[in-house]
Design the sequence.
């Protein structure tokens, strides 16, 4: 792991300096990722209609933990369409998250329940690009007027830059110097079946999935160029390395809170599930949990016994939440 990340637009190094993260914070980051992984593993096998959503979140634990873990109560997160774990990191009670998996309700009730829960934790739920980016800029504008240093962290996918509303949001954020951080989750091995709105074909010359929105290919540097054209700093970080993600988040949040204007960060990730059968094999060496375990071992902060205890404690919490949800909604496992 490194203490710096590459600034994509300029190719310069961004120093984060010294030993920024305490041992306690390192262990907290790992424990948070473990909780997220256990939740997704359970959810992916229990709710068929949400299986793709939760599979897509496996491998994104470093992004969710690194960006959300230290946000203030007044900060807001905007969820990406395939984001299922940031809510847990944000502080939404496990019981509420599990209840969503097991509840029998209509679309209308689901929307109302989600709105109420999300509102309490300053979460903008996934929606159409036009609606979501409109809400993101409105919240950021209100934050700027209040001058309390609150920020909006907007999670998006690579597909976003093909949408006109994305560029409108970037331009508006830059023009008004809004306190927004755009976090682009870039997974070059994304299974095309996870997002049916995109037409993807396997680019065999690069051995990766090349994304398309309609007939227009999504240029991986396109969103970076858009950010540069509006004057936003653009940073790339290894999204499988929670230490690197946390350091970039720390610096970016400080900049935005002090009135430095919006920032765009690209997190390159490698999801651990949901990949296409014809695509490349899963890469366990890029698993953010395995990556962090090696780092903690090098610092003598990790033991198998500690991990087992984390797994046991969260599993017990999860079991209790599942039992409560099943009792409340009279549902058996799917």
Sequence:
């Amino acid at each position: 792991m490194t203490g710096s990340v590459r600034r994509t637009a300029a190719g310069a190094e961004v120093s984060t300096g010294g030993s920024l993260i305490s041992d306690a914070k390192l262990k907290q980051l790992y424990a948070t990722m473990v909780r997220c992984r256990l939740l997704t593993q359970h959810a992916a096998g229990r709710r068929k209609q949400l299986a793709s959503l939760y599979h897509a979140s496996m491998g994104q634990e470093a992004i969710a933990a690194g960006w959300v873990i230290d946000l203030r109560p007044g900060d807001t997160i905007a969820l990406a369409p395939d984001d299922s774990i940031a809510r847990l990191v944000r502080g939404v009670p496990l019981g509420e998250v599990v209840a969503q998996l097991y509840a029998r309700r209509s679309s209308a009730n689901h929307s109302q329940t989600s709105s109420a829960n999300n509102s309490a934790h300053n979460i903008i739920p996934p929606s159409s690009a036009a609606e979501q980016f409109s809400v993101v800029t409105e919240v950021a504008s209100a934050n700027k007027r209040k001058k309390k240093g609150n920020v909006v962290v907007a999670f998006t996918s690579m597909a976003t830059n093909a949408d006109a509303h994305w560029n409108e949001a970037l331009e508006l954020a830059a023009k008004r110097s809004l306190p927004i951080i755009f976090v682009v989750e870039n997974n070059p091995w994304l299974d095309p079946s996870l997002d049916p709105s995109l037409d993807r074909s396997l680019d065999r010359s690069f051995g990766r999935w090349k994304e398309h929105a309609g007939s227009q290919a999504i240029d991986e540097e396109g969103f970076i160029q858009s950010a540069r054209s509006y004057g936003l700093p653009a940073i790339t970080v290894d999204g499988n390395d929670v230490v690197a993600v946390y350091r970039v988040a720390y610096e970016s949040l400080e900049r935005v809170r002090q009135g430095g204007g919006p920032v765009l960060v690209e997190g390159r990730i490698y999801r651990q599930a949901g990949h296409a059968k014809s695509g490349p094999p899963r890469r366990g060496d890029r698993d953010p949990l395995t990556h962090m375990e090696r780092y903690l071992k090098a610092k003598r902060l990790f033991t198998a016994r500690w991990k087992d205890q984390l797994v046991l404690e969260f599993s017990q919490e999860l079991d209790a939440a599942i039992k409560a949800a099943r009792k409340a909604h009279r549902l058996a496992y799917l």
Summary: Confidence is low (pLDDT under 50) at residues 1-18, 104-117, 191-218, 274-281. The chain has twelve helices and twelve strands. The chain has one domain: 4-329. The longest strand covers residues 180-186.
